[in-house]
Amino acid sequence: MDADTLALTGVVMAMMRAATPLIFAALGEVMTEKAGVLNLGVEGMMLMGAVAAFTAAVTTGSPVLGLVAAMLAGMLMALLFAFLTQTLMANQVATGLALTIFGVGLSAFVGRDMVGQTVEPLAAIQLGALSRIPVVGPLLFGHDPLVYVSLALAAAVWWFLRRSRSGLVVRAVGENPQAAHAIGYPVRLIRYAAILFGGAMSGLGGAYLSLVYTPMWIEGMTAGRGWIALALVVFASWRAERVLLGAYLFGGITIAQLHLQSSGGLAVPSQILTMLPYLATILVLVLISRDETRIRLNAPASLGKLFHPEG
After folding, report:
1. Is residue 306 helix, strand or coil?
2. Membrane-spanning regions, if any (predicted)?
3. Which of 117, 127, 168, 181 sits a CA distance of 20 to 30 A from 276?
4. CATH number at residue 43
């Protein structure tokens, strides 16, 4: 394999790793929003998942227990959000923003004594001769397990929402909760379940950062990825299969700016290059928001609206 091919393979693999935490968080938010709930606390849930995963992995020596801890931490944060918005009927936008602020502060407090510590990352899967096939081998068989889990999860969420009866019920709750309630579906319970799933996936996305991508605990290590995941949901038109495309696009932009910084070929301040993924997010949202018809057709009709069951 020549040097250029080897370098390109490395870039593609790095892009897939950069996209994986976005895939987890965005798929969880797709499920949440399909049920008609807008949770802006993804960033906070990812940070709590990251610190919980790192703490559990350092304490027990098991990255698997770290992943479980991350999902539980994300679900606890999501449960708080669900209780406030579905039971106490608090405003979803304000509560989501508060959840992010709470997660940022709490994760910094919990992880204050572990800043800079490292942990043994999840090893890439090696399949012998298959992994050694030029180009194709590393791209298909050279990743850590969570990369494959993210791909399988995207397929599972697509099937659940598009092909299963339960997925149809979730979509019905997101479109018209009053009608779903009238025919006997427990709207609040379904929304609770969707919110908890979103929290678990955000926690898993955070765990990927602290156990695989970095792997260490750094305060605020999500660096806005939760907000990018929220933008991905809109970019993907609330479709699981399109989340993959958007995540790999933003992952590619992230890796590109890192390579530009390391090469030193551009006389541009590093701070400007670091802004590229976020500028791309803003640009995509501006372009998408111009097509109001597309948003109305794809967004759940009751997204962000409180559900008041009739007596």
Report:
1. coil
2. 6-25, 37-58, 64-84, 93-111, 145-161, 189-211, 217-236, 243-260, 266-288
3. 117
4. 1.10.3470
Q: 118 - beta bridge partners?
A: 216
Closest listed residue to residue 100, CA positions, set 50, 45, 29: 45
The answer as to whether 31 is a domain residue is yes
Q: What is the DSSP string of 78-115?
A: HHHHHIIIIIS---HHHHHHHHHHHHHHHHHHHTTT-T
The total number of structural domains that make up the chain: 1
- Domain extent, residue 52, equals 3-118+130-298
Q: What percent of the chain has pLDDT over 90?
A: 62
Tens-place pLDDT, residues 100-135: 999 999 999 999 998 878 888 877 777 666 666 766
